[in-house]
Amino acid sequence: MSTRNWNFQRKGNIKYSAKTAASTLTKSELDHGFITVSHTTPFATTLPVASSLYKGCLCRIANKNSGASTVTVAAGFGGGNTIVTLARGDMCTVFCDGSAWYAVNSTTST
After folding, report:
1. How would DSSP label each residue in 16-56?
2. Most buried among 1, 23, 72, 96, by the most CB within 10 A?
3. What is the pTM of this model?
4. Which residues are CB-neighbours of 4 under 8 A, at least 6 positions away?
5. Domain 16-107: which topology?
6. What stretch of H or E contains 101?
């Protein structure tokens, strides 16, 4: 299969979740691997409590809001901060090892 055909087929298989209101993310949304948050006013997106169900979960979250939005987790990221703030256009990657969530990186729009 040529690279062009593979890329075309891959684009058809990419799934993502679009969030338009504050909520706790579900396993199926996190399994998509990419989540956009978008609304006219900023809101919080909450990660579920870390558990073996989410072990190995790696997901990008992008902010399309008109202002800053937050990604929160009750127990904190790696046991530390509970909030990652994303400005408009920013995104972060979150990872769960089964016992905690980690904000692996975040990017700032330019």
Report:
1. -EEE-S-EEPPHHHHHTSEEEE--SS--EEEPPPP-GGGTT
2. 96
3. 0.77
4. none
5. Jelly Rolls (2.60.120)
6. strand 101-107
pLDDT tens readout for residues 55-94 = 999 999 999 887 888 888 877 787 677 888 888 889 899 9
Neighbours of 107 (CB within 10 A): 13
Residue 109 tokens, joined: 């729009």
> Where does residue 78 fall: left (phi above 0), alpha (psi -120 to 50 degrees), or beta otherwise?
left
What are the tens digits of pLDDT across the range 17-68? 888 888 899 998 998 888 988 877 778 889 999 999 999 999 999 998 878 8
Amino acid at 55: K
Distance CA 33, CA 47 (A): 13
DSSP state of 64: -
Helix (H) or strand (E) holding 6: helix 3-13
Q: Residue 84: helix, strand or coil by DSSP?
A: strand
